[in-house]
């Protein structure tokens, strides 16, 4: 028995090596966290572009009395898991404090997943850090469809972190844990997670076909027999359990509508409100050129690195193969989306335009938008090790270590990324004087109006509920996601435009304002350009005027 036990005890050198690997992973995770968190803080000061949108919904989820009567807040909840995971913080923290804590939690998930994924594909110290520096430099130059991963806090940041963990665990052949993380990605963001599932299935099929025709199966990513079937069944069950908390509300939101409402909502999303994310013909030529260049670099690097990857460990080769097939699947999905979106504009002139815009509303470009730059980063880090540690390296290159080269390139990338943050326009897109007046107006409304006041805000409204603690009649930025609320959102915007045009006869008097309140239930009208008003404002500053709508008038 003692002999048997001694054989199961790992040698001291192995234990020391494992501790060293875990310590290196911890250090890399801390450094990646710092890179991502600091860049996000500088490029997207709180509140970031989408943080009032997501955290406002999360706060209302936990406290329905907050801004009660707001169309967006009372619409269907598309990201229930995110609201449950983060919204409780708003019960005892301010929205700004909640944003900082939530950013930290999401960045930790993202950074740890990023580091473990890099370690499975390129098991060398600081590779994940160098890749992170290169990635934020690339992110600072722009993207294709407006998708980002390093910025403010919203549900997709958690989803991408879970996806990185899932890919890393799959490369380690931990199928059940990988399935659980993929399920969490679906729960946090059904679209990010859903396209990840599709890409994983396509990559898995490609690997299965490739290995099917190999004579030797030793060390392959496939297993055979009853054990494989049992593991697969357990993994599927675990994935379903992990994904259902977020998937069920999303499916219910899509199903609780009529075909007519569904079509109207889809058209509003694809052709109007979210065209910059969903319509491939709205993407800039420069973005297409940049991503075509990234794709070319990625393909060329795969061919160049192929003979060198053959010398790597089995685990690294398997991870490299699966990850790149996963990225290829994401690129293929995006290409299909581009093909679907080709055609004349307006979209009604496209053949079979109803099913085509129905397909486009599911963001087929978002996964490739993030993963292709990451694939280039991984190839660059792998190429760095090949270039500066290969026996074939030139004598001049041989004088430079891999570590020196990696940190030098990372420093340049950090400088470029951080410098770019000084040119980032404020999330409100307002000039400093206008922004100061906007915040002043929001603070006055919060202090001087009743809690149940319903305010009709101007089109350029930004983070109104965040600063004023009052509901809005309609907000262009806060677009609902369920069909019925989205159609109502569009109706309200059209009503405001029509009312302003029809009622204008040199100005708006008290009776017209009362009629406006009767049709909208709004108790205050906040304007910038609309006017002149033939009544005195309740409050005004250099840019904005606030009018109280009183039926007694």
Description of the structure:
It is a single chain. It is globular and about 85 Å long. Helix 13 crosses helix 16. The chain has a four-stranded mixed beta sheet, with no helix packed on it. The chain has two domains: 24-423, no CATH class; 432-548, no CATH class. A hairpin with a 4-residue loop joins strand 3 (539-540) and strand 4 (545-548). The protein has helices at 2-8, 12-43, 51-62, 80-86, 95-121, 127-140, 155-171, 175-188, 190-212, 226-255, 259-273, 275-278, 285-309, 314-341, 353-360, 366-389, 395-398, 402-420, 432-448, 464-468, 483-502, 510-520, and strands at 455-456, 524-527, 539-540, 545-548. It is mainly alpha-helical and 553 residues long. The longest helix is centred in the N-terminal third of the chain and has 32 residues, at 12-43.
Helix and strand string, N-terminal first?
Answer: HHHHHHHHHHHHHHHHHHHEHHHEEE
Strand content: under 5%
Q: What structural category characterises the helix and strand content?
A: mainly alpha
List the total number of helices: 22
Largest sheet at a glance? Answer: 4 strands, mixed
The unreliable regions are 1-7, 215-224, 392-396
Number of structural units classed as domains: 2
Q: Cα distance, first to last residue?
A: 95 Å
* Percent of residues in helices: 55-70%
Could you say which overall geometry the principal axes of the C-alpha atoms support?
globular
Report the count of strand segments: 4
Alpha-carbon Rg, integer: 27 Å
| Order of neighbouring strands in the sheet with most strands | 1-2-4-3
Mean pLDDT figure: 89
